[in-house]
Amino acid sequence: MDPVPRAASLRRAPVQQRSAERLSRILDSCAQLLDEGGYEELSTRAVAVRAGVPIGSVYRFFGNKRALVDALAERNLERYAERIAERIAGIPAADWRAAMDAVLDEYLAMKRTAPGFSLVDFGNQIPVGADAGPNHRLTDRLTALLAAHLDRTPDDTLRRAFLIAVESADALVRLAFRLDPSGDENVIAETRELLRAYLARALD
Questions:
Q1: CA-to-CA separations, 143 to 54, 105, 154, 166, in angstroms, rounded
Q2: pTM of the predicted model, to two decimals?
Q3: Which of 5, 40, 60, 64 lies at 20 to 30 Å from 123 by C-alpha?
Q4: Are the C-beta atoms of 115 and 28 separated by less than 8 Å?
C-alpha cells in the first residue's frame, strides 16, 4: 500500500482500503500527466479520466491541481524516506559516508525513474504547500532517520549541517540534469565529494 499524504494535503483522508487505492490511482495519474504535458497542461479533469474515476472523486480529496501536486510531492517524500530506511538498515552505523551515498543514490534513482518526480520531487520544481519549504521537510526527515541510524543527537547543529547539505545537493543535482537529461556523472561525482568533505566536520 502506498503511503497516504498528510491530512493537510487532502480535503478528506481515505478511511477504507478502496478509497486509499483510488487516491493512489489519482496520484499515479497526476504523475504520468505531469511527465507528458507539464504542470500548465495538468487538469483535475484529465487526472480523473486517466485514473478512471468520476471527477467528483478527485474533488473529494483535492480542491485544485495545486493541492494534487502537493500531495504527490508528499507521497514522493514518504517513498524516498522508506527507500533510505531500507538502504541504511544494512549499513554499519559508523559508516556515515555510505549512508550519505545511499541518500544521494536513492534521490538520483527516483529522479531518473519515478513518474512525475523530475517535475515535482518534494515540491521544489513546482513550489507547493503552505510552508513553501520542501527542503526543510526533507531535512527534518533525513535528520530523524540518519541521527537514529548513526547514533547521533538530532540537535540544531546536526539539522543545520543536513539542511546545508540538502540545499547544496539540490542545486548541484539540478545542474547535473540541466547538462545531461540522465544526470551528468562528473557533476554528480563532484557533488558526492562536496557532501563528504562538508559533512566530515559534523560527522567524523
A1: 40, 17, 6, 11
A2: 0.88
A3: 60
A4: yes
pLDDT of residue 3: 67
Do 96 and 150 touch, CB atoms closer than 8 A?
yes
Q: Report residue 167 as a C-alpha cell.
A: 540545499
- How far apart CA 68 and CA 90 sit, in angstroms, is 35
d(CA 74, CA 45): 21
Yes or no: say if 102 and 88 are a contact pair by the CB < 8 Å rule: yes
Task: Confirm if 29 and 58 have CB atoms less than 8 A apart.
Answer: no
> Distance (Å, rounded) from C-alpha 69 to C-alpha 9?
9
CA angle 112, 113, 117 (to 5 degrees): 80
The rounded distance, in Å, linking the Cα atoms of 196 and 185 is: 17
- Are residues 50 and 41 in contact, defined by beta-carbon separation less than 8 angstroms? no
Q: Which residues of the chain have pLDDT under 70?
A: 1-9, 124-132
- Residue pair 177/111 in contact by the 8 Å Cβ criterion: yes
